[in-house]
Amino acid sequence: MTSTKVIIREAQSEDAQGVLNYLKFITNETSNLLLTPEEMAQKKLTDEINLLEESSKSSENLFLLATKDEKIIGTANMKSF
To answer: CA-to-CA distance for 60 and 69, rounded, in angstroms?
Structure first.
């Protein structure tokens, strides 16, 4: 049975592959994003792991995931300047 519950939580480095998969999918679905499919094709797993690790250690940055049935359905990356 599938759940209708959406969970919002802070992303961890272990989520890097799932985040990349999600971003690759949505950049091919719409042109209303800052990232293009071509830019996403250049992203590396190690870079995403580093981004999520830095974000989780920072008191000025926050990277959130929305998940449903353990599948990423949304992201929010907030940075303080």
So the answer is: 29
The token pair at 74 is: 């949304």
pTM of the entire structure?
0.83
Show Cβ contacts of residue 6 under 8 Å, excluding neighbours closer than 6 positions.
66, 67, 68, 73
Instruction: Give φ, ψ of 13 to 5 degrees.
Output: -60, -30
Q: Which of 59, 60, 69, 73 is nearest to 19 (CA)?
A: 73
Instruction: Find out whether 9 and 72 touch, Cβ atoms under 8 Å.
Output: no
Q: What is the pLDDT of residues 8-40, one digit of tens each?
A: 999 999 999 999 999 999 888 888 878 888 888
Whole-number Å distance between alpha carbons of 22 and 13: 15
